[in-house]
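Reading is simple: the token line describes the chain's fold. The lines below illustrate.

. . .
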Amino acid sequence: SFIPSAEQTGHGPVRRLLMAPDATAALLDLCFNDPVLFRAVEAITGCAALRFFAGSVYRLTAARGDVPWHDDCVDGRRVAMTMTLAPEAYDGGVLQLRERDGHEIRDVPNPGPGDAILFRIHPSLQHRNTPLTSGTKTAFAGWFGDGPSLARRLRSATAEGVQ
């Protein structure tokens, strides 16, 4: 099931539907926290020392699909990834990239199921999704970073729960 979300960024709220935490979400996080995948992402992006992935499944709809310009430069995030999951057709919801101080906007569509985009996170680079005009876009998105590994975060969360 999906629940409404209005996560705050430094540039306004991101309005979308997030998959409620469940076994599917946990399995996706586990699969993407693979050292072999980290090395592949490092080779593709030139970004070294990746140690974690944190992601979520989300939906954009015409009524709930506003993702403003932002840069994701928080919590040790170094590389962003977005992957289209569902085969339903939709219009809009295109990933756009721009230099913070530039005027050129690059559209980076990924409309097919399994299509994925990787891009480095940097304070000079911003991104957003254009509004959806029809249909529903379901995607898995997240960040590869250089902070604590998934195992360390789980041990820490377990220790906090025991206290």
Remarks:
- The longest helix spans residues 150-162.
